[in-house]
TrEMBL record:
UniProt record similarity statement: Belongs to the DegT/DnrJ/EryC1 family.
Keywords: Aminotransferase, Pyridoxal phosphate, Transferase
Protein's UniProt name: dTDP-4-amino-4,6-dideoxygalactose transaminase
Organism: Silvanigrella paludirubra
Top EC class for this record: transferase
A single GO BP: polysaccharide biosynthetic process
Tagged with keyword Signal: no
EC nos: 2.6.1.59
Amino acid sequence: MRIPLSKPHIPKQVFENINQVLNSGKLSGDGFFCHSTEDKLKKLLNVKHVLLTSSCTHALEIAMLLLDAKENDEVILPSFTFTSTANAVLVAGLKPVFCEIDPNTMNMDMNDVAKKITNRTKAVIPVHYAGISCDMEKLIKLCAPQNIKIVEDAAHGIGAKWKEKYLGTIGHMGTLSFHDTKNVICGEGGAFITNDDILADKAQIIREKGTNRAQFLRGQVDKYTWVAKGSSYILAEPLAAILSAEVDIMNELNEKRGKIHHYYIEQLKHLEEKNILKLPHFSKDCDSNYHLFHIILKNELSRNSLMGYLREKGIGATFHYIPLHSAPAGEKLGYKRNQLPITEEYSTRLLRLPLYPDLTEQECVSIVTEIQNWSQNQ
Ligand SMILES: Cc1ncc(COP(=O)(O)O)c(C=O)c1O
């Protein structure tokens, strides 16, 4: 593609940090860059505990394992999400219960969440789609009386806020992604975040293969041993070194994305007025990080037509997600097509446009011009 969907921005400092790690001879996790980047993120996001992980998928798995659930316990999540959100639920031996989305935001529909809560509901996973917050006020009101845990999947959300609080820090636990396609990257990586001391201690053990190694290194215990169920979820030092440099420029990266987002809105609003497409809108409580830019076309035919047209011109427009309840693994869990009609319809109408910090003005003009050219025949 002449203009890809996304492209990582790699600052010069990354090369210096990588050299420093290679010269240090310590490449495994829990080293200088792991600790210093966790500290930076704690300050930046105003949260008590940050544990870097090998992915957001793994951070979600840690969160699900921390629920200490029994067989048949349930977790409510949107069907319109990446497979990792549901896989984490399954890995921990829980049952995913898929809910509908609000087509205005593509975030979970809280009225449907309310309908799906049972006495087996252990947690709800709000996915903050595109870095735009779910309605956390309604969700907290639903969950608090029944002691249901909120685990935010803020894979898209680093630096975005809901009512002045950073996404991922509002619920009991939160997760971030630093995958290549995200706003702040290190290739593959993530973070588990929480304000709860007990959950953070237990998460350290799960992250360190079920051992108390972290406590041992801090001098809190005199033996390093196997204490609980766990896995190998820590971020390796070279990746933490990349992340360290990226975290330093998070605001700059998000601002650059914001400018492109605003440009798309300005240039495409006349097509919304003509009902050719719908633009993303969000409430004043949300402070977006402009993770991605999506438009909603009239129907699947129109979406596929524009996607094909842009791809022919070398512009990497794409769609996501295939609803999980109607995917083969969802059907194996007993879900059927037509059970979540809004999710099914909107996932066939959604189109993502290229958005990354180094997208040039000329490239933005070219994308918008091609969309306008396509719209002449609609
Ligand atoms: C909503 C959501 N959750 C979780 C993930 C998994 O993130 P990672 O690739 O860091 O495991 C993704 C990946 O894009 C995602 O979109």
